[in-house]
Amino acid sequence: QKEVEQDPGPLSVPEGAIVSLNCTYSNSAFQYFMWYRQYSRKGPELLMYTYSSGNKEDGRFTAQVDKSSKYISLFIRDSQPSDSATYLCAMSPNAGNMLTFGGGTRLMVKP
Amino acid sequence: DAGVIQSPRHEVTEMGQEVTLRCKPISGHDYLFWYRQTMMRGLELLIYFNNNVPIDDSGMPEDRFSAKMPNASFSTLKIQPSEPRDSAVYFCASSFALLAGVNNEQFFGPGTRLTVL
């Protein structure tokens, strides 16, 4: 079993829909949680970052962490075709930058 | 700054050949990471450097893989001899510090797509 699990998708939604992307993990030492967005044939880029449990909002994006369930989510409101990409969750124990990535979920937002 | 630069962008080689991937990190970043991405295994950390010194190479799959960082602006990942199962996209990333977070995020290069026939 992988340390971080993520449904590979693809997830196809119409423009304007609310998107929910999720990851589960097994290592209770993880405290730093990140979401990266990766466009086709590009490197990942940091989208959201949260520490420990709770919510964080940035524009149309909301990241949620539930450490008791070892479950994190990324919500995208009013999804746009430009949001079409692969979304990778990443986690790190303590304060280190040694990231463990999920396999990524491919999202397609159709106009 | 041009961001993290990787070369070549694409590499096609035959099994048994030596492959060298190159990376130029963002100026001023003290940490450099090499990752491998495949459909089956996702994004895996291979090795990372701090101030040109290899700190953790536990992700390097085999002795066929080696990485060096002769100076702050250049790193190489070498595979010798290459095998078809090494086919993947190899990413280099750099960061200012080791602390995870927005101010210390890892910036990724565009990757090198390696195909070993």
What does this structure look like?
- By secondary structure, chain A is mainly β.
- In chain A, 0% of the residues lie in helices and 57% in strands.
- Chain A is built from no helices and 11 strands.
- Chain A has strands at 4-5, 11-14, 19-25, 30-38, 45-51, 54-58, 61-66, 71-76, 85-93, 100-101, 105-110.
- In chain A, a hairpin with a 6-residue loop joins strand 4 and strand 5.
- The relative contact order of chain A is 0.35.
- In chain B, strand 7 (65-71) and strand 8 (74-79) form a beta hairpin.
- Chain B is built from no helices and 11 strands.
- In chain B, the strands form 2 sheets. In chain B, strands 2, 4, 5, 6, 9, 10 and 11 form a 7-stranded mixed beta sheet that branches.
- Chain B is globular and about 40 Å long.
Short description:
The complex is a heterodimer of chains A (111) and B (117). Chain A is mainly beta.
